[in-house]
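Let us work through a complete example step by step.
Step 1: write down the sequence.
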Amino acid sequence: MPDQSSDATTESAHPVTRDIDLSPRHRWRAYWVAVAVAALTILDLTKVNVALPSIEAALNAGPTELQLVVSGYILTFGLVLVPAGRLGDLRSRRVLFLVGLSLFLVTSLACALAPNTTVLLVARVLQGVAAGIQMPQVLGLVQQLFQGKERGRAFGLFGATIGIATAFGPTLGGLLIALGGDTDGWRLIFWINIPLVAVVIALAAWLLPDTRTKSHRRLDLDPVGVILFALTILALMWPFLFTTGSPDDNPNRWWLLVASVVFAAVFVFWERRYAEHGRMPLMPFSIFSLSSYRNGVLISTAYFSAVPAMFLLGTLYLQGGLGLEPVFAGMVTIGFAVASAWSSWIGGNLVTRLGRPLVVWGIVGMVFTAGGLVLVALFTAPEWTPWAMAAVMVVGGFAGGLVISPNQTLTLADIPVRSGGVAGSVGQLGQRIGTAVGTAIALALFYATVYREQGAVDDQVVLFHDAYASGMITVGVFLGLALIVGVADLAGRARSGSQTP
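Step 2: predict the structure and record it as tokens.
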């Protein structure tokens, strides 16, 4: 009798996935539509990075406002992921794709037309909501469309696409600023979304399958859990968002870190009680009992706390310190994009054979990349610095490609398909919150150094490479944490006699 009750509870929490009866050709066409959605979502994060100096000049934005242009998008992106993933698991992913894309189109238009910083910030926050609706449907759909080695190849292509979008974003942003001019070129970064998203909406309506049977069961989205989690992250980020290096910075802001710990404790308590009452919490802690999933999420969270901040700091240094035009500052990452696309494909095919060691070696390569970039900034002649950084980025791209897609495959390897949306959403939540926090800390260190040394240091290059080196401390710390988790996971697999999935 207890077994039957347990089965009923499981069935209620996770309705059985309807088989998706698609030909291989239709399956891969649906896959590429989903991956295009993910690429647009990530591209809008990285291509905005290169526009921050232009936005600062055009709208007279301060350091805090510039940080919020990036972090506001990422934060709401992350907060919406898990509820949207649950909606996708219980209802229609195709409908959520269309809702998210439509909102993304409208908010892109609002960003492009923003007359001041306030409107731009509000639009970016809502754009993050749209991104959070879309992204979990991508991973959930891939989980349902593919199995076994084919899933590894699918995640390999997914990782390659995301790698290209992440690294090519600054180049695209720079090109658009060059076309639009210094004053309004940044607006083209948002205008270009309009036709691209319109095309993807049409393809999604045509090619995406209906992945769920209709359900009239009451949705359980845990709004209290969402609010508590949001307060935890906001309290963690707030002190860094308002760190400018000025003597006017309020020292009491650091007490919010204590508040963040308190909110986190209340959140954990609430989520556990919520689950004990048979409800579906925002954070299903039970899935973290799977070591492959838990370690994979920790690695991706630490990795994405580091790498987007690394790109952002690089573009700020090249533009502010060396005076490079945005288009040339963005081009420095092209080698990373190409190399990561290649190695993501290789990693996706090798991960089922090599397992976690592949990811660990990729993280080691990224640690050396971060160190190499700092050394190049400090010790090369300014005219050679962009070229040397571009060369180091190629190495980093190859290493990064061995992290993203193989880690994604290993993280979801033991997750049941019926839980794919929520599990993928929690993993994406870690990545987005990691990016928001890592970027906020790195920018706080960067701008605080600029403010502190301005006037005391005559050489603009020295001023900015000091700021760059300070911000890159954040990148090194988070990559170090990812490496520690990866090595610990290897040790655990060695003890259990399992090195591969």
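Step 3: interpret the result. Confidence is low (pLDDT under 50) at residues 1-19.
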